[in-house]
């Protein structure tokens, strides 16, 4: 972010979370930058007000926080032109949201970081010097002294560049263990010290990494592997869609079917048929959501991470898929 003692960082993320504790607070401590704490818990308007009144030059947050700030009814009344940089991280960052943040919040040098609490937490990051397309569509390149490999989760072998696999990391930043839980540690860190993140990604020829999704989120419909993130990114292009998450739900015939939970832009209306028609001919037919639900918000943790397991549980009840969910598979 090219911080100096002249920067003023607005920090709306929880301090018990590795993002707020390390990436935000420690970045200020190591550079003599000012910490601006907008409120005890996240409040979109408090963030906008603090950026304006404290003339913040940087802003951190997870995607859901930036989305809430952009959607606030009084967004236009706040001056945000002091902003220069910041970080969006903590969960996958939709490309269209990144573009909106750059355009409407004046954060021309915003960057993306990727990692986990288990990796202290950073593994990769874009830079302020990266082209905008790199900064909105990738999570950057590995940090110094951090090894990254992308492997086939079945063979455990490194996949060719440009192919999807599980992201693994090794280096000083990887935790030693889960405290008093050797079994969980063995499942995450192998004998060669590689941390298996459970995230699916692609690395290009220049070392930039793009996140495709989570291993646990991957939907297998009739033998086809489907990554919800790809469909979420596609639906973000619809002019009426403000935010969207895609999950897999049980299905007797195909094993799983797709369901999209969509939050519309203020004042917009839409039907499930409109969503499916938007998809036809533009993405593969098996990636078109069978079920569509329109919502005002999504179940999430207090740190702003979406809880897809709760969405799945709710969907099973609402769609009466209990019998399908109890079918045993090999």
User: At the fourth CATH level, what is the homologous superfamily of the largest domain?
Assistant: ANL, C-terminal domain
Distance between the termini: 48 Å
> How many beta strands in the DSSP annotation?
16
* Helix fraction bin: 25-40%
Number of helices: 10
Enumerate the strands of the largest sheet in spatial order, edge to edge or round the barrel: 2-1-3-4-5-6-7
Q: Return the CATH architecture of the largest domain.
A: 2-Layer Sandwich
Shape: globular
CATH topology value of the largest domain: GMP Synthetase, Chain A, domain 3
Task: Quickly count the domains.
Answer: 3
- What's the CATH C level of the largest domain? Alpha Beta
Low-confidence stretches: none
**What integer value in Å does the Rg equal?**
20 Å
SSE order: EHEHEHEHEEHEEEHEEEEHEEHEHH
Strand content: 25-35%
Q: What does the average pLDDT come to?
A: 94
Instruction: Assign the structural class, choosing from mainly alpha, mainly beta, alpha/beta, alpha+beta, or little secondary structure.
Output: alpha/beta
Largest sheet: 7 strands, mixed
């Amino acid at each position: 972010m090219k911080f100096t003692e002249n920067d003023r960082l607005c920090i709306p993320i929880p301090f018990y979370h590795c993002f707020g504790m390390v990436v935000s607070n420690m970045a200020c401590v190591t550079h003599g930058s000012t910490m601006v704490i907008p409120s005890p818990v996240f409040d979109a308007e408090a963030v906008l007000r603090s950026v304006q009144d404290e003339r913040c030059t940087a802003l951190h947050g997870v995607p859901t926080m930036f989305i809430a700030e952009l959607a606030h009814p009084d967004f236009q009344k706040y001056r945000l032109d002091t902003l220069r940089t910041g970080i969006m991280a903590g969960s996958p960052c939709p490309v269209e949201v990144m573009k909106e943040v750059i355009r409407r919040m004046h954060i021309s040098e915003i960057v993306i970081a990727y990692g986990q609490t288990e990796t202290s937490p950073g593994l990769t990051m874009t830079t302020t010097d990266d082209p905008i397309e790199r900064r909105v569509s990738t999570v950057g390149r590995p940090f110094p002294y951090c090894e990254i490999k992308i492997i086939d989760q079945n063979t455990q072998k490194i996949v060719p560049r440009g192919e999807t696999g599980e992201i693994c990391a090794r280096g000083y930043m990887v935790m030693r263990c889960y405290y008093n839980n050797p079994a969980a540690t063995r499942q995450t860190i192998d004998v060669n010290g590689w941390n298996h993140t459970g995230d699916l990604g692609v690395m290009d020829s220049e070392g930039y990494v793009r996140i495709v999704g989570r291993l646990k989120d991957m939907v297998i419909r009739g033998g086809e592997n489907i990554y919800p993130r790809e469909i979420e990114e596609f639906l973000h292009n619809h002019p009426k869609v403000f935010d969207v998450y895609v999950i897999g739900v049980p299905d007797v015939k195909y094993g799983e079917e797709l369901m999209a939970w969509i939050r519309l832009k203020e004042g917009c209306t839409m039907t499930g048929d409109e969503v499916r028609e938007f998809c036809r001919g533009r993405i593969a037919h098996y990636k078109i959501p069978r079920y569509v639900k329109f919502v005002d918000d999504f179940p999430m943790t207090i740190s702003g991470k979406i809880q897809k397991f709760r969405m799945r549980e709710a969907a099973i009840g609402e769609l009466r898929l209990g019998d399908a969910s109890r079918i045993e598979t090999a």
